[in-house]
DNA sequence: AATATAAATGCAAGTACTTGCATTTATATT
DNA sequence: AATATAAATGCAAGTACTTGCATTTATATT
């Protein structure tokens, strides 16, 4: 998803292309990997921008909710990692507990689910992440 | 899982049956539903117990990790809900975004997963929750 | 170009844990 | 029963957001 598509996506969702929001998206594009609210804040604070930490958090969450960003709970400790989505389709992530590496997975359990388990429920969404120890990290013991 | 089984489960994991821990487990047994760290803290603070909030958080997390408790992120906002596990087997949960109702689901996506997606990874675990709007809450709009 | 309006921001205060560390306590061993 | 030891606790400080609200700003309409 390039910046042109992102602007369209914003417009489609009635979201404004504010200066802070654009600075955040540009920083994400430059980073070309995963960032945290804090790492973005530190990066953007150096520049003239000076964007509030709460603005960053709100944007990361909002942009994730419309599919522009991916978000994962890297250590299951409330520190979220974000990146520009690596693919257009809905997907989930596989996370190495040891080195923090994050890989996309096409599999979505919601599609596999026998619908009797969610009978009567509407507006279904799921949260799904797999944690493990990647090949590079096996041998090197512990975290 | 009754209190006898719980004690065995603790011993098996080299966990002590401390006074705070037992008070927490008893409170959970009485509550017979879902509680938060804060609701437990408020309840136990009234009594002679007077257990530190961090002790409660640490126990809830620890007891969840050995399967005595279930834990869910009810509103995806970092407030966790806990209960004594309703079943012995590993399982996940379906959560109503509107009323907060939590129902167990036997389905575990990790078992359904094509193993090529996690090739090279060991010690796999998954986090999986489904959010939706339950039958009772449909009609009543919004949250 | 001026105006209206909904969205977004920045600030300050709040929330829900989380962590480090010295001290206490439950259990196993003698 | 006394002792050793690993586990757990309580306290204080820290972290990572989150929320409410007055003010600002981007976009659509006139
Ligand atoms: Mn992704
Ligand atoms: Mn359960
Ligand atoms: Zn790794
Ligand atoms: Zn409901």
Can you describe what's shown?
The structure is a homodimer of 143-residue chains. Helix content of chain A is 35%, strand content 22%. Chain A is of the alpha+beta class. The first copy, chain A, has 2 domains: 1-87, Orthogonal Bundle (Arc Repressor Mutant, subunit A); 89-143, 2-Layer Sandwich (Dna Ligase, domain 1). In chain A, the strands form 2 sheets. In chain A, strands 4-3-5 form a 3-stranded mixed beta sheet, with no helix packed on it. In chain A, strand 1 and strand 2 (80-84) form a beta hairpin. In chain A, helix 3 (37-46) crosses helix 4 (53-65). Chain A is globular. Chain A binds chain B through residues 73, 76, 78, 94, 96-97, 105-107, 109-110, 112-114, 117-118, 120-135, 138, and chain B through 73, 76, 78, 94, 96-97, 105-107, 109-110, 112-114, 117-118, 120-135, 138. The complex binds manganese (II) ion (2 copies) and zinc ion (2 copies). One zinc ion (ZN) is lined by residues 96, 98-99, 101, 134, 136-137 of chain B. The structure holds a DNA duplex (30 and 30 nucleotides).
What layout of secondary structure does this protein have?
2 copies of one chain form a homodimer.
Chain A: H1 3-12, H2 19-31, H3 37-46, H4 53-65, E1 69-73, E2 80-84, E3 92-96, E4 102-105, H5 109-112, E5 122-133
Parallel strand pairs in A: 3-5
Antiparallel strand pairs in A: 1-2, 3-4
The structure holds manganese (II) ion (MN) (2 copies) and zinc ion (ZN) (2 copies).
One zinc ion is lined by residues 96, 98-99, 101, 134, 136-137 of chain B.
The first copy, chain A, binds a DNA duplex (30 and 30 nucleotides) through residues 11, 14-21, 36-38, 51-55, 57-59, 77-80.
């Amino acid at each position: 998803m390039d910046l042109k598509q992102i602007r369209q996506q914003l417009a489609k969702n009635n979201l404004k292309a504010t200066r802070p929001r654009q600075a955040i998206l540009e920083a994400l594009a430059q980073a070309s990997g995963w960032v945290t609210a804090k790492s973005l804040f530190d990066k953007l604070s150096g520049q003239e921008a000076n964007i509030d930490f709460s603005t960053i958090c709100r944007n990361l969450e909002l942009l994730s909710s419309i599919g522009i960003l991916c978000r994962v709970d890297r250590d299951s400790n409330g520190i979220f990692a974000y990146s520009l989505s690596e693919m257009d389709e809905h997907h989930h992530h596989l996370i190495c507990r040891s080195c923090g590496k994050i890989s996309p997975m096409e599999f979505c359990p919601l599609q596999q689910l026998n619908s009797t388990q969610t009978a009567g429920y509407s507006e279904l969404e799921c949260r799904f992440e797999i944690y493990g120890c990647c090949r590079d990290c096996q041998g090197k013991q512990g975290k």
